[in-house]
Amino acid sequence: RKEVEQDPGPFNVPEGATVAFNCTYSNSASQSFFWYRQDCRKEPKLLMSVYSSGNEDGRFTAQLNRASQYISLLIRDSKLSDSATYLCVVNGRGTDSWGKLQFGAGTQVVVTP
Amino acid sequence: ETGVTQTPRHLVMGMTNKKSLKCEQHLGHNAMYWYKQSAKKPLELMFVYSLEERVENNSVPSRFSPECPNSSHLFLHLHTLQPEDSALYLCASSQTWGGLDTGELFFGEGSRLTVL
Question: Does residue A1 contact residue A69 with C-beta atoms inside 8 Å?
Fold first, then answer.
């Protein structure tokens, strides 16, 4: 089983619509969770951290569900510039992965006019 | 302008060649990383250096050889590579290694390697 799994997409979203997608992780001892964004042919950049209580950053909302071991990202009022691949990242806290960031393969979002 | 710069951006090499990838960070960070990114696959951690000491070698074949002469520079020396080594190689840095509670890695734009 992969440590971090994501639906690869693509999620085709009309401009102005809302899109949401999840990421599941296998290590129940994981403590920290993040979403990175990677534009086409560019490097990944931190989008936001994911806190236990859920958090918002403008049009972006991240949620954590520890019981079911998944995190989610919701984008409201999608803009064309939101088109990117969104990488789920988990910071392992087990004996094999302490301090290691585990990356998912990414979910592609395409916002259309 | 990125705080982490990588050269070259593109590299084509034969299986018998020797080449090197270079990374420089201007952020004053103490940890530097090499990642491999293949299409549709998660980033694979290759090597980690903390304060110029290698702290992680993720079962990478010996045809990849890292070098960290100081906390700002990181190299990846390549020799006798295979076609399946073709990928985007990303360098990254972070303030520290070990905790990473902020989860923030700063990536360079990557070196796209093609092995013929």
Answer: no
Give residue-wise pLDDT tens across range A43-95.
Answer: 999 999 998 888 999 999 999 999 999 999 999 999 999 999 999 999 876 55
* A103 and A75 Cβ atoms separated by less than 8 Å: no
* Cβ-Cβ contacts under 8 Å for B49 (sequence gap 6 or more): B31, B32, B33, B55, B66, B68, B74
Q: Does B66 touch chain A (CB under 8 A)?
A: no
CB contact under 8 A, A87 and B43: yes
Asked if residues B47 and B92 have their Cβ atoms less than 8 Å apart, the reply is: no
Min Cα distance B47 → chain A (Å) is 11
- If we measure between CA atoms, which residue out of A2, A75, A4 comes closest to residue A33? A4
Count of alpha carbons within 13 Å of A103, Cβ hemisphere only? 26
